[in-house]
Design brief:
Blueprint lengths: L3 H5 L2 H13 L9 H25 L4 H11 L6 H21 L4 H7 L19 H15 L5 H5 L8 H16 L65 H6 L38 H6 L30 H18 L4 E6 L5 H7 L15 H10 L13 H24 L5 E6 L3 H10 L18 H18 L1 H4 L6 H8 L6
Parallel strand pairs: 1-2
Helix pairs in contact: 2-3, 3-4, 3-6, 4-5, 6-7, 12-15, 16-17
């Protein structure tokens, strides 16, 4: 494993990654200057909004509010240090602009974190009469026109251009693009490090110095001398000389789960207390370093692949809509790859696309958490802001344009039909293929029978991703349907599980 100090040195990079992940389903546009500017703009507006919340909630000065926010951040990844550095550079200008009653939009445009091409509409989160924008911005720019801090935002400074970060930036970029762990000493694509595409995302490597030992492989010599398949079972029973792997696992038909999906499948989640001043405390950001290095996803808690129990109390974005023809080609390419890599007798399930129109129908009139500091800020304003910046993860459904929402649903149905066609018409050598509708309406009805409301199934911060409750409900429906329609996919329970636990203990399920 690399030195922890090298990982910690990348903290400023993760601030950028966090903003990028918030509004993007991938990292393939790092070099796109328009998207980079948009991410900086969103990050600035959110942070300045939180600072304003602090001044109101705690009846404190802007300086005190900024310092309070920094004090809540952990030292790990240099998050606290980086925060205080930003306050030192931009704090004086933010104070001046707040004294002049400027909101977060005006502050970020004035400090040039929100850069837009000439002729493009002025993107803003908070309502402001159109005729007042020009006058207000000009007034704000006069206040900070001689500020030395502007050189930082004007220079288009890229944190990855620093010599000591250039290599690690490139390595992280490639790791994320290729979906492989950053920390992988034996290069077998498995890691004993949890984040940065480590074992939170795939099986834990039980021996990262031996590339022939990794989760899911066929055991080497029945693992008589060491654990090669990382299931925690190895050695020989001294009573009869039979390897434990052979005694307990031969013919057990072990199963694994691989999810090829987006951030919804990986359980994208931003805790509400991260952006709500009244809920923030020293404990709020304890898991922030883990979340940042997992790209704000929590795959270890996913309804499909999760192996840990969540302690949250809160009971990808979809990719750009493609065409049925492109989807068919891409899915077939993936399935052919799987057919050459999966063991014979495997099973693959294609999941249809949900109809996301209900998101807008149920959430557009509910306050976004940022609305706590301005009652006029709703999910509609938030997604209009992202749409304006051209970085919305779901501009087709999260839009005030009803025609666009309906067209997006029609396209989603076409894509689902394409997946169903593949599942019913194609045969593969090493696996059987099945199709399952993503029936979110059924999940909603199930929740309503329990007395819940549809909006309670959506992440409260982004108003788009399914939350923990929705993931659990879908998992229940998913496994119930498999047990009912395709019981052979699950197979029989290993009758030796009690003996395995007695000899080797709980293996943790991953």
């Amino acid at each position: 494993m690399k030195s922890p100090q090298k990982i910690l040195m990348t903290a400023p990079l993760f601030f950028l990654l966090t903003l990028h992940t918030l509004v993007s389903s991938g990292y393939d546009n790092w070099t796109d200057s328009r998207h980079s500017n948009s991410h900086y703009c969103i990050g600035c507006v959110l942070v300045v909004s939180i600072i304003e919340q602090f001044t109101q909630v705690h009846n404190s000065t802007v300086q005190t509010s900024m310092e309070r926010l920094c004090s809540y951040l952990p030292e790990k990844l240099f998050l606290k240090t980086a925060c205080y550095s930003m306050v030192h550079i931009f704090g004086p200008d933010i104070i001046k602009l707040f004294r002049a009653h400027m909101n977060a939009d005006v502050v970020c445009h004035t400090l040039e974190f929100c850069k837009q091409d000439p002729g493009q509409p002025l993107c803003h989160l908070y309502p402001l009469p159109k005729e007042a924008w020009k006058f207000t911005l000009e007034k704000a720019r006069q206040i900070v026109k001689k500020s030395p801090a502007l050189k930082y935002s004007r220079s288009g400074f890229d944190i990855c251009s620093l010599p000591f970060l250039a290599k690690i930036c490139q390595k992280i970029k490639l790791a994320i693009q290729n979906s492989v762990p950053l920390e992988d000493a034996d290069s077998d694509k498995y890691s004993d490090f949890p984040t940065l595409r480590g074992f939170h995302w795939r099986g834990r490597d039980c021996n990262d110095s031996n590339r022939m030992a990794y989760p899911g492989r066929r055991p080497d010599n029945w693992d008589s001398y060491q654990d090669s398949n990382c299931n925690g079972i190895w050695g020989v029973d001294p009573k009869d000389g039979i390897p434990y792997e052979k005694k307990f696992c031969e013919g057990s038909q072990p199963r694994g789960v691989i999810l090829l999906g987006d951030s919804a499948g990986a359980y994208f989640h931003i805790p509400p207390d991260w952006i709500t001043a009244s809920q923030m405390s020293l404990k709020s950001f304890f898991k922030l370093p883990i979340a940042l290095t997992n790209e704000l996803d929590w795959p270890q808690l996913s309804g499909t692949t999760g192996f840990l129990h969540s302690t949250s109390r809160n009971i990808d974005p979809l990719p750009e809509m493609t065409t049925p023809e492109k989807l068919y080609s891409k899915v077939m390419q993936t399935l052919q790859y799987l057919d050459s890599h999966l063991p014979k007798g495997s099973h693959v399930i294609l999941l249809g696309l949900p109809d996301g129109r209900f998101l807008w129908d149920h959430l557009h009139d509910r306050y976004h958490p940022l609305g706590q500091l301005n009652k006029d800020v709703t999910y509609a304003h938030f997604y209009s802001f992202l749409n304006c910046l051209q970085v919305s993860p779901c501009h087709g459904w999260m839009s005030s344009n009803k025609t666009l929402r309906n067209l997006t649903s029609e396209r989603a149905e076409q894509l689902s039909t394409t997946l169903k066609k593949i599942a019913t018409s194609q045969k593969f050598m090493n696996f059987d293929l099945f199709y399952l509708d993503f029936d979110f309406q059924k999940i909603v009805k199930k929740w309503q029978k329990r007395g819940g409301q549809p909006w309670q199934l959506i992440e409260p911060v982004d108003g788009f991703h399914p939350n923990e409750v929705a993931s659990q409900l879908f998992a229940d429906l998913f496994w119930e349907k498999m047990q009912r329609q395709w019981p052979h996919v699950l197979g029989k329970e290993n009758p030796f599980n009690p003996q395995i636990e007695q000899v080797f203990g709980d293996q943790g399920g991953h």
